[in-house]
Design brief:
The protein is built from ten helices and four strands, in the order ααβαβαβαβααααα. The chain has 303 residues and is of the alpha+beta class. The protein is elongated and about 95 Å long. The protein starts with a helix and ends with a helix.
Length: 303
């Protein structure tokens, strides 16, 4: 019986804390809007940075593991010219195997990876190239084979992942350094604004807090409404970034599908990736809000 009464009291107390946190958000008006806006801008940029970094990592791994040279044949090349090109590729030093893949097969791969909507690019509308996949006897020989293949007649381009990886790793290093540094700065600004919002709430309720202490209220009882207010502020700030990033990423994914596939790579599929990214941003928003409350309480409540 005592346990049931205790549980009912805890539930009523939790509801009271939640109601108090909502009232504080309304009471602070524009300061609450400013805090939510700070979290929104912060998480929007942080989400974009995370999406870029995760995809660069994925593409880098694809490139690093790619030990083939993709030799793209110029459009309009006749069959006998393709046969001559294939013979020249097979005669090259360090070449182990040459496999032909037509534009139609390349498009079928895209359809298999990205969905039936890309079947519209059939026939003359197919923007892909006929490709010769050249395997080398040793991965270290791939760069040399790619350079030689690029000079052959009727070759549009010859790409090798390892050569592009060096550029990608350099770009990724700069993105991580500057992007994460900028995101950390924005997180600090968001925490500062939220702490100021909570501070105004605390100052406006000083008398109430003083009375609560006089009647024996514990530090935890006084602390929880402010923690909830900060958490709500962070959670509200997540809504817009999640919507913008989800729609934006799907748009980028669909529009880059063909160009990425023509180079033999792909972005992370939406779905699970976006779910994980959204969940990360939601947790980050709540943590930012709660941290802002903690900073404010430690400075002004001294509890």
């Amino acid at each position: 019986m005592k346990k049931k009464v205790s549980m009912a009291m805890k539930i009523r107390t939790l509801k009271r804390h939640l109601n108090d946190s909502f009232k504080s958000l309304k009471r602070n008006g524009w300061m609450s809007v400013a805090a939510v806006s700070a979290v929104t801008v912060t998480l929007l940029l942080v989400g974009v940075v995370f999406a870029m970094i995760f995809n660069f990592n994925k593409i880098s791994n694809d490139i690093e593991n790619d030990v083939h040279v993709r030799v793209m044949v110029e459009r309009g090349t006749a069959n006998d010219q393709k046969n001559q090109l294939e013979k020249k590729l097979k005669k090259m030093a360090s070449v182990k195997k040459v496999t032909y893949s037509s534009r139609k097969k390349e498009l079928n791969k895209v359809v298999g990876s990205y969905g039936q909507s890309f079947k519209m690019f059939t026939g003359d509308d197919n923007p892909l190239y006929d490709v010769y996949m050249v395997s080398t006897t040793n991965p270290n020989k791939t760069i040399g084979v790619a350079k030689k293949a690029k000079k052959l007649a009727h070759v549009y381009d010859a790409t090798y992942g390892g050569n592009n990886a060096k550029k990608l790793f350099s770009v990724m290093k700069n993105i991580r350094k500057w992007g994460l540094g900028f995101a950390a700065l924005l997180l600090f600004v968001a925490v500062f604004l939220i702490s100021n919002t909570i501070r105004i709430t605390i100052l406006s309720r000083r008398d109430e807090i003083g009375i609560m202490r006089l009647v024996g209220a514990t530090n935890a009882y006084i602390r929880w409404p402010f923690l909830f207010e900060g958490a709500w502020t962070g959670l509200l700030g997540v809504i817009v970034p999640v919507i913008v990033i989800d729609f934006g990423y799907v748009w980028v994914y669909n529009h880059m599908a063909l160009s990425m596939a023509s180079a033999g790579y792909s972005l992370l599929r939406p779905g699970m990736f976006l779910f994980q990214l959204d969940l990360t941003m939601a947790i980050l928003g709540i943590v930012i809000g709660a941290l802002g409350s903690v900073v404010s309480m430690r400075r002004f409540l001294k509890i």
